Amino acid sequence: MKFASALVGALALSVAALPAAAEEGAVIRADELKAMPFIDAATSAKVTANQQVTIVGRKGGWVEVQAGGQTGWLRMLNVRLAAGSGPAQGQANVRAASLLRTGSSGKTVTTGIKGLGEEDLQNASPDPAQVAALADFAVPASEASANAHASGLVEQQVEFVDEKGKPVTRPKAKGKNK
Amino acid sequence: MTRLRRPLSLLIAAALCLPPAPAQAQFGGLGGLFDKAQKAKKVGDSMREIGPEEEIKIGNDLAGMILGAAPLVDNAAEQHYVNRLGMWLALHTDRPDLPWKFGVIATEDVNAFSTPGGYVLISQGVFERVRNESELAGVLAHEIAHVVQKHHLHALQNEMRTTAVADVGGSMVASGGVGGFLTEQVVKAGKTLYTRGLDKGDEYEADRMGVVIAARAGYSPYGLVGVLQTLSAQQDQKGMALMMKTHPNPTDRMDRLGKAMGTRLDALTPVADDLPSFVALRNPPPPPAAKAPAKARAKAKPRRK
C-alpha cells in the first residue's frame, strides 16, 4: 500500500513535467503559410505539396507548423499526419488519473487493460446492471445547459450540409430501407 | 360477433405461422406467444416506423450487449463530465427529448458506439487520445447524429427482416420463455450489425452532422477533423481493428467532410477548442507528498456533484 502510494506520487509528479508531444505531418497541396490562423492573414511563406512539417499548435480549423525554418498556420485539412503520429495511446496524464483512482478505491484496474475486438462483441452477454449504472450517470437538460453556459460556451446558428456543402434543414432520415 | 370471431382467427393465424409442436407444448398462452412473434416480425418490417418507446427498449438491449463486452470505466467524474457534454450537444439536434445517456467504457481500443433511443458509449482509448474537448465533442456529436437519424434502428430492421422470421421457433425454446424473446432477437441481430458496421453513407452523414452539432453547441467544428487525422495516422496500430473494420477509411472520411464543410464554418466566432475544466479533469493536481496520501488524494480528487 505504501509502495503503491509512493508509486502514484512519483508517477503523477513525473507526468506534470511532460511536454506535449509535437506531431509530424506533410502538406497535402501547395499552400501559403499564414502569420495568423485566419484566411485573410498575412502570408509568411509558401509551402509545397508533400513538404514535411512539425505541428506545434492547433486553433479551430488551423494548425501551427514549423516548415523549413519558418513558423506559421495552415488549414488543418491541408495537412496529413505522418503514420504513427498523433496523441499516444494511454496519454500519461490520464493514465495517472486512473491509477490514482485505483489506488484510493482499492478496486482492480478497470481502465486500459483490454481491447474490444469483434470476438468480444460476438461473445458478449447483455449486462443489465451496467445499463442501470449508465442510467445513474445521466444528467437532466437543465444541468447540461447551466454547466455549458457557466463554461462560457456560445451557441451558434448553423445549418446542416449535404455532401456538396449545400445547406439543408435536416438530412432526411432513411425511413424506408433500400 | 366480431368479438367472438377475432380470437379464432388469431389462433388460426398463429397455428399457420409457427412451428406448432414444440412451441405449443411449451407455452400455454398462445395469444401472448403470437403477440411476441408478431412483435419480432414487426421489428424486421422495414415499412413500419418504430415508435420511441420501442426504439428506446431496443437501444437499451443493445447498450447492454456492448456493456457486456466492456463495462463502464470506474471514474464517476469522467462519466459525469461526458454526460454533461453529451446532453448539451444532443440539445442542439431535432431529438433533444430522448433519454440521452453517455458512458466511457473500459477498453483501450479506439471506438465509439451509439444505440437507438439515445445511448452513446465511447472507449477510454478515445477519451485518452483526444487532444482537447472539441475533439471529444466531435466524437460524441457523430454518435448523436447516428441516433438522431436512426441509422442503427433502420439497419437493424433490415437485418431482422431477413433473420427473425426464420428463427421464431428455435430461439423461443432457447430463450426459455417469451419474455426474453424480443431481446434475444435484437441482440443477435445487433452483434452482426455492430461487428459489420453501417452503410458508408450513414457514416459520412454522421460526420457532416457531427461537425454542425458541435458548432451549434459552441465548439470548434474541426474537433472531429482532428480525430479523423489521428485515426488516419494510427489506423494500423493496435486497438484500431474493430473501428477500422466497421467504418470507412479515415482519410476518405476527411476528404468528403472537407468538401462538405468548405470554409463556411470558419467564420463562426467564438468557438471553443478546449475548456479549463477538461484540462483539469485529465490532469488532476499531483499529490504534494507521499507521506500524507489520504489528504493528498482528497485534494486531488474533489467530489463532483
Describe the structure.
The complex is a heterodimer of chains A (178) and B (305). With 178 residues, chain A is of the alpha+beta class. Chain A is 30% helix and 23% strand. In chain A, the strands form 3 sheets. Chain A has a 5-stranded antiparallel β-sheet, with no helix packed on it. In chain A, strands 2-3 form a two-stranded antiparallel ribbon. Chain A has a two-stranded antiparallel ribbon with strand order 8-9. In chain A, helix 1 (2-16) runs antiparallel to helix 2. Chain B has one domain. With 305 residues, chain B is mainly alpha-helical. Chain B has helices spanning 2-17, 20-26, 30-43, 52-69, 76-90, 124-129, 133-148, 151-175, 181-196, 200-216, 223-234, 241-246, 250-261, 276-282, 293-300, and strands at 101-105, 112-115, 119-123. The model of chain B is unreliable at 1-28, 168-179 and 292-305 (pLDDT under 50). In chain B, 64% of the residues lie in helices and 5% in strands. The longest helix of chain B has 25 residues, at 151-175. Chain B starts with a helix and ends in a 5-residue tail after the last helix. Chain B has a 3-stranded mixed β-sheet, with helices on both faces. The interface between A and B is large, with 97 and 125 residues.
